[in-house]
Write a structure and sequence with these properties.
This protein has 452 residues and is mostly helical. The protein is built from 17 helices and six strands. The strands form three sheets. The protein has a two-stranded antiparallel sheet. Strand 1 and strand 2 form a beta hairpin. It is globular and about 85 Å long. The protein starts with a helix and ends with a helix.
């Protein structure tokens, strides 16, 4: 005969094993999906002269193309079928988020709950197709007009090449969008963020090897290399600290009566993140700052004199470049925070559910107080973003250290790692709760009262 204790232990072990298997399946699915993505970054577009394209890209890698190539894991450098990566989808999501704060119809749709969210997601997909098609056509035309000593980049220019390029690149972006959704539903972490993360860290081993080779040949002193590695760890620790930092506003709920019972008042917190804008400000700032450089590269220095002067002043490592970069990051940090967090709506929701901040009147005064606190912490968050993004520029320019990771890439890599680890921990905590619930039910069933 098997005792009740042995049966209880067997049931708990079986439940824990099954849950662990579910988590393993999610992790393996995520890894397999990312492998599929990485394989796609090595499949070139049809009709491309690879040698000629590599020579052309090398001349333009310091502009905006270089930044998007780093975010895409080298797919743009190889002109692969995933050359656009998932960036059109991210751009469409940002545009829809901004429009939801401006357009009353979209704002009302956003407040409808799950049904409204699904409708906005559908609009985002449509906009992704439009943006991807526009970018793909621009790439096709640009490739047709590109040639160098290695020959023409496009083997057989014409409308057939343009059509196949647009279909291939748009199809690659939509496949990555679908793959990201599958990772989110069936894997671990946010699929879109993990795809960008995989592209960023793909070049990290090669960059580290290059760094150690420079130290071995004497281009970088060993002391400088060790100091850089220590500084990199310190920057990662600072990013983790600031990304987790938040200001919690105490929210009190009064006593309320439910049926014949009087429920006591509850206390909760309204968390306001120190960096509410995420990595959007560095991406916007980098894009705007690199735009004149990219235009000048495409004109091969034959553009207007004022454009060449601007490019020279905004070159990487120039003081004006760093100052404008930091100013743009700070501006977009405030701008995007104002878009994603509306103090008036937050105050109205608190009043709707009976909540209030102690010492502050509900309604307009609460909105003003939240806006005041949000402005103060955004100053710190914006300065933190500017410091993290400008520091690699200083190291590259004045210390002579070639960095693969820019500030934007480092922020994305650390943030996605933190989010993924948090989701894995939530899965493990859910397993523990389910195990405790099963244990309590089994104890109740095996007790004398349960048998009655």
């Amino acid at each position: 005969m098997v005792s009740a204790a042995e049966q209880l232990a067997a049931n708990l072990n079986l439940g824990a094993f099954s849950k662990a298997e579910d988590l393993k399946k999610r992790i393996w699915f995520t890894l397999a999906a990312l492998v599929v993505y990485r394989l796609g970054t090595y499949i070139p577009l049809p009709g491309i002269n690879i040698a000629a394209y590599a020579a052309s890209f090398a001349q333009q890698s310091k502009g905006i193309l270089g930044m998007f190539n780093a975010l895409g894991g080298g797919a743009l450098e190889r002109m692969a079928i995933f050359a656009l990566n998932i960036m059109p989808y991210i751009s469409a999501s940002i545009i829809m988020q901004l429009m939801s704060s401006i357009n009353p119809k979209l704002e009302a749709l956003k407040k409808e709950g799950e049904a409204g969210r699904k409708q906005i997601n559908q609009y985002t997909r449509y906009l992704t197709v439009v943006l991807a098609a526009f970018q793909a056509y621009g790439i096709a035309v640009g490739l047709e007009g590109s040639q160098n000593s290695a020959g023409s980049v496009v083997i057989d220019p014409g409308w057939f090449f343009r059509a196949t390029t647009v279909i291939t690149l748009v199809g690659g972006t939509m496949f990555l969008m679908w793959l990201g959704e599958q990772i989110t539903q069936r894997g671990v972490g946010n699929g879109t963020s993990l795809i960008i993360f995989a592209g960023i860290v793909a070049g990290l081993p090669g960059a580290l090897v290059q760094l150690f080779e420079l130290s071995k040949t004497g281009s970088i002193s060993p002391i400088l290399l060790v100091g850089f590695l220590v500084l990199a760890l310190a920057v990662v620790a600072a990013i983790v600290f600031f990304e987790r930092a938040q200001r919690r506003l105490l929210v009190q709920y009064p006593k309320r009566q439910v049926g014949n019972k009087m429920l006591q008042g509850e206390a909760s917190h309204l968390p306001l993140k120190l960096n509410s804008s995420g990595v959007i400000p560095p991406i916007f700032a980098s894009s705007l700052l690199l735009l004149p450089i990219t235009v000048a590269q495409f004109t091969a220095g034959q553009g207007p004199e004022w454009l060449n002067n601007i490019v020279a002043a905004l070159g990487t490592g120039q003081p004006l470049h760093m100052a404008v970069y930091a100013a743009l990051i700070i501006f977009f940090a405030f701008f995007y925070t104002a878009v994603v967090i509306n103090p008036k709506d937050t105050a109205d929701n608190l009043r709707k559910y009976g909540g209030f901040i102690p010492g502050i009147r509900p309604g307009e005064k609460t909105a003003e107080y939240i806006d005041y606190i949000l402005t103060r912490i955004t100053v710190i968050g914006a300065l933190y973003l500017a410091a993290v993004c400008v520091l690699p520029e200083i190291l590259t320019s004045y210390a002579g250290i070639p960095l693969y990771f820019g500030g934007t890439s480092l922020l994305i890599a650390v943030s996605v790692t933190m989010d993924t680890v948090a989701q894995i921990q939530s899965h493990l905590i859910a397993q523990q709760y389910e195990g405790l619930i099963k244990k309590a039910k089994l104890k109740g069933a095996s007790s004398p009262k349960g048998r009655r």
